[in-house]
């Protein structure tokens, strides 16, 4: 029976059982499509990274003897749309069965189900063999529970997969070393130089420009740094083990104006495109840890494992549990628009300027920049979560809806009413001052609320709490913040609200 097997751009798993043996009657298809480049405006580096990784994957499977076809974005034969590509291949190659791997995005899942229901030949969906969990495991784990706490899920995953366990006890006698993962970075240990691949990408960028794909952000044509093959992805893991793991946990929450990446692994694109799996990353890193225990503390490795075995799988489970309604949630009824400086980086706020310019230059910001600088700011500004989502989904190299949406709309914007976060991640300038050196070099004064040079975060913070106090009044975790709000005199609160509204209305001049 002649089979057509579809491989989506984020399904580049060469270890999948599909590729264990070759078959003359099986044809693989990969396609760069306008459908995928245009559903949101992506960062130019993201488009380049996906196209290059797909092309490398195609070359690899062909070299292993798998019959395959590839549509480049500029091929005149390319129909640029999933349904047309599938039907074109079925007709041209007289295909008798269509097979695909389960997509991770709801949008594509629905589309493929619909396409299959219209086909006159049989079809079948396969697991991607990438994650630790399937789509429903988290829902089953939390069945009947009101609170979907990540920590509970994480402990279950540690036990189930025997990761960092000594029998039934967690290694180091503690499940979680979060409390020791909150150091400010003051230059006490050197940050190793960035792992660079320095790839030449002018040809593919020209192809993207000629196709008139609209993108955001910047790219260096002779120094492209993201891994675009399995070998390079494994090199990044190796680099992480040898250079960054030692201090990963310590400085997980730190920010520094001279250090864009600190000790973060920058593995998210390699994993989200499935060039490498979370299982092998965890195995390699734990094995390195065990060989170097005299040098690396348990809190570093636990911090890293928690991100991948805990947060990454948890976020995926929440996505499949809550979609499609999740994508429309806006419980705080925020309606403001994003300021223009999200696309230009031009703002006098040093923390925002660094985080946004870095996002535009590198298609990357680390977790705390995404959560406690940019996300904190958009929530305090009461920006519509649709606008925030579209920006995050476009700008980051690793942004695919299943992971972007719950992180942005849920964890960072609290638009889901607390499904993920038990309280909103908001702060005044003092948190940013505590965790970074941004404020020391800022035009604004982090201690001030009023006056031309007052830090905008300060009044926006109290204004946000005041505007949303009715919504949060039953939330115990908000009790302390709301008590402090109550202690502010009516005169002071009035001044705060005037200032905050002036900031909201004139954001692009700040
Ligand atoms: P490291 O700090 O080295 O962490 C290791 C790995 O842990 C990451 O590669 C990632 O796979 C995983 N991880 C860590 N935190 C999370 C998390 N909260 N959710 C899922 N996986 C996690 N991650 C994405 O992959 N795509 C996104 O679109 C995305 N959007 C985000 C939006 C917001 C508002 C926030 C707060 C976080 C978002 N994250 C997203 C999670 C996290 O910020 C990134 O995974 C991380 O910054 C990637 O860099 P890294 O590989 O250097 O991570
Ligand atoms: Fe950001 Fe305010 Fe600090 Fe400036 S003073 S860096 S705006 S928190």
From TrEMBL:
It holds the Pfam family DPRP. It comes from the Bacteria. Gene3D superfamilies: 1.25.40.80, Deoxyribodipyrimidine photolyase-related, DNA Cyclobutane Dipyrimidine Photolyase, subunit A, domain 3, HUPs. Coiled coil: none annotated. This is Cryptochrome/photolyase family protein. It comes from Flavobacterium flabelliforme. The lineage of its organism: Bacteria, Pseudomonadati, Bacteroidota, Flavobacteriia, Flavobacteriales.
